[in-house]
TrEMBL record:
GO terms for cellular component: mitochondrion. Keywords: ATP-binding, Lipid biosynthesis, Lipid metabolism, Mitochondrion, Nucleotide-binding, Phospholipid biosynthesis, Phospholipid metabolism, Repeat, Transferase. It catalyses: a CDP-1,2-diacyl-sn-glycerol + sn-glycerol 3-phosphate = a 1,2-diacyl-sn-glycero-3-phospho-(1'-sn-glycero-3'-phosphate) + CMP + H(+). Pathway: Phospholipid metabolism; phosphatidylglycerol biosynthesis; phosphatidylglycerol from CDP-diacylglycerol: step 1/2. It holds the Pfam family PLDc_2. Residues 130-156 form the PLD phosphodiesterase domain. This is CDP-diacylglycerol--glycerol-3-phosphate 3-phosphatidyltransferase. InterPro entries: PGS1, PLD-like_dom, PLipase_D/transphosphatidylase. It comes from the Eukaryota. It is found in: Mitochondrion. SMART domains: PLDc.
Length: 429
C-alpha cells in the first residue's frame, strides 16, 4: 500500500478485516441485504438516501422497520432523505409513507440552503432539485454498513445497476457515518406522524429563511467536529492494527467547502505512475471541469471509463424536457472523447447497454451542489483484490467500446439546441 501513503497525510483511514468486505452485484441482492439488515439489527438502523419510493417493495421495507421496532423496543431507527425529492408527490411522497413510523423513529429531511428567496418560489417541483440535494447513500445496521449509489426505490431493487459495498462488523466506520447522520440531521427538518415537517430544535438558523452565511458556518463547524473525531479514532486504531486493508471514509459537501472527494480524485487523476491503471464508472457522465482538465493534461496512466448508453440513462424516454437529458450526456461524452483523441490519451470510453436496464454505478459524485459521502478501499489482500476484479468484470459484461462512429448512430443524435443549452447549464446536471 506504499503507493497510497499520501492518502494518510490528510485523511483518516480505518483498518478493516478484508473478509468482512462483501461486494454485492445485483439490485435484487441489494434489496435482500437491506431487508436482512433491518430484520437482524438489535441496536440501530440508520438509513441515508435521496428518497424512498412508494411502491410495494418500499412498503415492505417500512413494514420491516415496524417489525424491528416491535421486536426491539430499544432499537434506534433513523432515516435521512432530501427535502425536495422526499416531499415531491404530496400524498404519494416519501414523507407520506414514512409518517407511519414518525412517532417511533427519527425521520429527517435535509433542505439545501442554496434554494431560497425568489428561486424557492419560481422553480417548480422536480426542477428545483438541480439546485442541490441530500445525496448520501449509506445504510447502517448495528456495526455494519452498506455504502452504495442506490436509493431506496423499486427501480434500484430490480433493474437499475449500481455498486454496493457491505462492510460487516466495523464499529468505527459505522460510528463515523452515524455521526455524519447526526450532524446533518441536526440542521434538517423532522417529520411527525401528521406529515408535518419542523426544523430540528437543535438548529437555530432556518436554511430557507435564516442567515445564509450563519447557517453554512454552523453546518461546516459541526461536520468538522465529526471529522476531527474520526482523525483521533483513526490514529488509535492504526497504531494497533496490522490489517492489510484500509478504508478511507470521505465527504464532499462543496457548498460548505468540505471537499475530501474532490481533493483525493484530483490527486489520484494526476498520480505520476505509468504502471497505474484506473477504471471509473458514471451513470451520468458530465465531468467537473477540474477533473476533465486534470485527466486530459496531467494523467500519465491508462484509464477506462464506463458510461450509461442513452437507453441505459435513467431519463431515457422521459416526459417533456427531461427526455432530452440523455442527449446532454451524450454531448458531454462526445466532447470529452474528441479531446482524448486529439491529445492522444490512453483513455477508453465504454457504454453500458443492457436491455430494459439502467446504469447508475458510479465512482465519483457531485462536487458543488449535493451532500455526498463514500469510501476509498485500499488493500493488498489477494482474496479481496480478486473480489474487486470480478465486480469490475461483471459491470463490464454489458459494455461496448465508444468509437467515432458511435456518435453517428441515430440514438446518439443531439439536437442543436441541447448543445447550446449545455454550454450554460452543464454544471446543473
Amino acid at each position: 500500500m506504499d503507493s497510497f501513503n499520501w492518502l494518510s497525510e490528510g485523511y483518516s483511514p480505518l483498518p478493516v478485516n478484508p473478509n468482512s468486505v462483501q461486494l454485492i452485484r445485483t439490485p435484487t441482492e441489494y434489496y435482500e441485504k437491506l431487508k436482512h439488515g433491518i430484520k437482524t439489527a438489535k441496536k440501530r438502523v440508520v438509513l441515508s438516501t435521496l428518497y424512498l419510493g412508494t411502491g410495494n417493495l418500499e412498503e415492505a421495507l417500512v413494514d420491516n422497520i415496524i417489525h424491528a421496532l416491535d421486536n426491539n423496543p430499544g432499537i434506534r431507527i433513523g432515516i435521512l432523505l432530501d427535502y425536495l425529492r422526499g416531499t415531491r408527490g404530496g400524498s404519494s411522497s416519501s414523507a407520506s409513507l414514512l409518517s407511519r413510523i414518525a412517532d417511533n423513529a427519527e425521520v429527517y429531511f435535509y433542505h439545501t440552503p442554496d434554494l431560497r428567496g425568489y428561486m424557492k418560489y419560481l422553480l417548480a417541483e422536480r426542477t428545483n432539485e438541480i439546485v442541490g440535494l441530500q445525496h448520501m447513500k449509506f445504510y447502517i445496521f448495528d456495526d455494519s454498513i452498506l455504502i452504495s449509489g442506490a436509493n431506496l426505490s423499486d427501480l434500484y431493487f430490480t433493474h437499475r445497476q449500481d455498486r454496493y459495498v457491505f462492510i460487516e462488523n466495523c464499529p468505527a466506520l459505522a460510528d463515523f457515518f452515524c455521526d455524519v447522520f447526526d450532524a446533518v440531521t441536526s440542521f434538517s427538518f423532522r417529520l411527525d406522524s401528521s406529515g408535518k415537517l419542523e426544523l430540528n430544535s437543535k438548529c437555530h438558523i432556518d436554511p430557507i429563511n435564516g442567515s445564509d452565511s450563519d447557517f453554512r458556518t454552523a453546518f461546516r463547524s459541526r461536520i468538522t467536529e465529526v471529522q476531527r473525531r474520526l482523525e483521533k479514532q483513526s490514529k488509535l486504531l492504526i497504531a494497533t492494527s496490522s490489517s492489510d486493508t484500509l478504508v478511507f471514509p470521505f465527504l464532499q459537501f462543496g457548498m460548505y467547502d468540505i471537499r475530501d472527494e474532490e481533493n483525493i480524485l484530483l490527486r489520484l487523476f494526476s498520480y505520476p505512475n505509468n504502471d497505474f491503471t484506473l477504471t471509473m464508472a458514471s451513470g451520468y457522465f458530465n465531468l467537473f471541469d477540474r477533473y476533465s482538465e486534470t485527466i486530459l493534461h496531467k494523467s500519465s496512466y491508462p484509464m477506462d471509463i464506463i458510461l450509461a448508453s442513452p437507453q441505459a440513462n435513467g431519463f431515457f424516454n422521459g416526459n417533456g424536457l427531461s427526455g432530452y437529458i440523455p442527449s446532454l450526456y451524450v454531448h458531454a461524452s462526445e466532447l470529452f472523447y474528441k479531446q482524448t483523441k486529439r491529445l492522444n490519451k490512453e483513455i477508453n470510453l465504454f457504454e453500458y447497454n443492457r436491455p430494459d436496464w439502467t446504469f447508475h454505478a458510479k465512482g465519483y459524485r457531485s462536487v458543488n451542489r449535493d451532500l455526498e459521502a463514500q469510501v476509498l478501499l485500499v488493500t493488498t489482500n489477494d482474496a479481496l483484490k480478486e473480489k474487486l476484479s470480478k465486480e469490475k468484470q461483471y459491470l463490464m459484461e454489458f459494455i461496448s467500446k465508444i468509437e467515432t462512429a458511435t456518435f453517428m448512430k441515430r440514438d446518439h443524435y443531439v439536437p442543436y439546441w441541447v448543445k447550446i443549452f449545455s454550454r450554460y447549464f452543464k454544471h446543473f446536471f
